[in-house]
């Protein structure tokens, strides 16, 4: 089950990207203000979750109207939470996605968009949520980059492919003593160890069509820059 989480970044991704990612997904889950991004892109979500503190009144009314239209057919779950809560809306979005996949008894793949622009504190917290859900091998796709979370508990390797040739690539460890290998990049690594948030993996270049990055231990955020 491929789920797209459209999150509530103050600076959302383009409508074109939201639309494209939606077409690649089995279910779109609007996360709070992400409903406004869905509406702007002409994408009707299959579910909504959040505390409704950032979605616009018109956006929330639109979600509820879409849910009413689907009553008795393919139901559109709306899961509202109190604003005074321990988890961020994105964290709740991952929990909701897990529940929806479990209800269908399907394996879960998660893509996130509209999550990392506008506020640095929110952006850093996003990577905390992605790390917590590393077993799902989530990817974060924005207009400027694609990021994949690599870890032994999820996906260990990203094969970048021909489309990445000539593009910039970076990685940032999200856990201490993360072990990384890179091949097919201008500067290669073999079981290199790096602590969390160190800058040793910034600004590489993809030089081969079979380039790949592997996380042997720890957690890695791997970025392919547009």
Question: What features would you describe in this structure?
Answer:
- The chain has 226 residues and is α/β, with parallel strands linked by helices.
- The protein is built from 5 helices and 14 strands.
- A 10-stranded mixed sheet has the order 4-3-2-1-5-6-7-14-9-12, sandwiched between helices.
- Strand 5, helix 5 and strand 6 form a beta-alpha-beta unit.
- The longest helix is centred in the middle third of the chain and has 16 residues.
- The radius of gyration is 18 Å and the shape is elongated.
- The two termini are 27 Å apart.
- The model has no long low-confidence stretch (mean pLDDT 95).
Radius of gyration: 18 Å
Uncertain spans = none
Beginning-to-end CA distance, first to last residue: 27 Å
Count every beta strand, where a strand is a DSSP E run of 2 or more residues. 14
Strand-and-helix sequence, N→C? EHEHEHEHEHEEEEEEEEE
Q: How much of the residues is beta strand, in percent?
A: 25-35%
- In terms of quaternary structure, the protein is single chain
Overall mean pLDDT: 95
Shape: elongated
Helix count from the secondary structure assignment? 5
SSE-based structural type: alpha/beta
Q: How much helicity do the residues have?
A: 25-40%
Features:
226 residues; elongated; 14 strands; 26% helix; alpha/beta; 10-stranded mixed beta sheet; 4-stranded antiparallel beta sheet; single chain
Layout of helices and strands, plus pairs?
Blueprint: E1 2-6, H1 15-23, E2 27-31, H2 34-41, E3 47-50, H3 57-69, E4 78-80, H4 89-104, E5 109-113, H5 120-132, E6 139-141, E7 145-150, E8 157-159, E9 168-173, E10 178-183, E11 189-194, E12 204-205, E13 212-217, E14 220-225
Parallel strand pairs: 1-2, 1-5, 2-3, 3-4, 5-6
Antiparallel strand pairs: 6-7, 7-14, 8-13, 9-12, 9-14, 10-11, 10-13
Helix pairs in contact: 1-2
């Amino acid at each position: 089950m491929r789920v797209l989480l459209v999150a509530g970044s103050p600076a959302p991704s383009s409508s074109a990207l939201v639309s494209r990612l939606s077409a690649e997904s089995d279910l779109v889950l609007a996360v709070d203000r992400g409903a406004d991004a869905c509406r702007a892109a002409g994408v009707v979500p299959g579910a909504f979750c959040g505390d409704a503190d950032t979605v616009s009144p018109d956006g929330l009314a639109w979600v509820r109207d879409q849910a009413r239209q689907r009553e008795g057919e393919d139901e559109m779950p709306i899961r509202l939470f109190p604003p005074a809560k321990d988890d961020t809306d994105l964290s709740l979005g991952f929990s909701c996605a897990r529940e929806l996949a479990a209800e269908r008894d399907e394996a879960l793949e998660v893509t996130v968009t509209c999550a990392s622009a506008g506020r640095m504190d929110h952006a850093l917290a996003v990577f905390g949520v992605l790390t917590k859900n590393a077993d799902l091998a989530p990817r974060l796709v924005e207009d400027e980059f694609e990021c994949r979370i690599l870890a032994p508990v999820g996906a260990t390797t990203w094969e970048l492919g021909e489309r990445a040739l000539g593009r910039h690539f970076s990685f940032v460890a999200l856990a201490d003593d993360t072990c990384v290998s890179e091949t097919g990049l201008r500067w290669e690594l073999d079981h290199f160890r790096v602590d969390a948030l160190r800058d040793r993996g910034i600004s590489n270049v993809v030089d081969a069509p079979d380039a790949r990055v592997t996380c042997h231990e720890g957690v890695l955020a791997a970025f392919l820059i547009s």
